[in-house]
Amino acid sequence: MLPVIIIPKIDMLHSIMLFWLRPSRQIRPPIYSMKQSKLRRKRVIRYSLLYFVMLIIMVALIVGPTVAGPMIPSSIGNSVDNFGFALYQPNNQDHDDTRGTKQTGTGAPGYSGALLTMTTATAAATATSS
What is the pTM of this model? Predict the structure, then answer.
């Protein structure tokens, strides 16, 4: 796009191609008073400042944990545990249950949840109705 944009008067040529308008009949940009120009300039500055502040916050929220994560001491986890909350995932522990080597959830041998009671109740109701 950039090489086409830097050609002088290409916007006028583009308007002629699209709308079949002569250059004298093209839609002109509005002429603003000084007061309107100042208000528009202030609005642009205000929203551009807001945009860049939000952009910096978003980048900090994405990059911050990756940069500062290794710098957080593990003693913080111990102080959080004193309150009875387990709010963090401990690192370097071999508790990976995602390999499929043992049953978890409803397939676990000691499962006694809602699905088990529903299926046994449904089976009992089916057995008594027949």
Answer: 0.41
